[in-house]
Amino acid sequence: MIWEVLGDSSDQVYSPQDEPQVEVRDEPSKSENLNTEAIDRHMSTWDMFDRLVNHGCVDLSLQMDTKQDSAVIASGGGFGDIWMGKLYNGTKVAIKAWRSSMIEQCDYKKLKRATREIYYWSKMKHENIHQLMGVIIFKDNYLGMVSQWMENGNLSQYIRANPDVDRYQLCIQVASGLAYMHACNMVHGDLKSFNVLISSDGIAKLSDFGLSTMYEASIAFSETSITVGTTRWAAPELLDEESPKASKSSDVYALGMTMLEIFTGAVPYPQCQRDFSVMRMVQQKILPTRPEGRIHTGQRGNKIWELLMSCWNYEPNERPSAQEVVKL
């Protein structure tokens, strides 16, 4: 659909023959699958680290000071923090550090799933995926996942700083990254502009994906709703269920909301101040209003709006796949 819309753009960057081919590269084989190993009922941070390294994740301990005394916290979350650090060669990196206290509270099944999710992340290679460089034991106490630092920040920040950016191309890049993830049988689970990073050359890269196990665990231990902070992007079925589970179709719903963000520069349902108000709108099947000033009336704008509406279909099975969003 996006490619069809771009067909009448005189300044388009990609041509149809450049359409991203989504394929599974470096997909784990059965012999590599972490499911095949017995995992102790009590699994420590070091246990998780050793298993990841033994299965091929890069141990970055020789390339950086794992204590990172000069590192600064860039953001915090329910189960860990993101730090800005450096390799010995001066390369800036982001370190997502899982708190040991959080790991200790999880049962072995959750830790088994979480370890597998990190491993799959390490095997994914795509231009629109924020790649995992390796793992470390951070500050002697945390499981640290290291990736390249993105100077342009997240998608929301980038659009504000670059209002003339080609927003159609950003939509293609986000959809392409999600389509690749789904082809790898991975679900993002928290797609929104804040979880899409922008490289120095303006390429969108999906981040904070596939780590739903620890996110769900942090929710359970903090006794807060899974929808807090993500309600505006959450599919209706996630808001209605007592134990919501993200899926490819709920990812596509969030993709539509993220694409709307790209065009408007605002979060979905900006007129709603509270998540409760958003939930009520969704439950009443009230979709976002078309931003005429951003998605203009005309063949191109109409096709984009039809695409977004299909992503927001109340019935999960009626939504297009991420690959269809890219190709239609």
From TrEMBL:
Pfam families: PK_Tyr_Ser-Thr. Residues 1-33 are annotated as: Disordered. Residues 68-328 form the Protein kinase domain. GO terms for molecular function: ATP binding; protein serine/threonine kinase activity. This is Protein kinase domain-containing protein. It comes from Rhizoctonia solani. The lineage of its organism: Eukaryota, Fungi, Dikarya, Basidiomycota, Agaricomycotina.
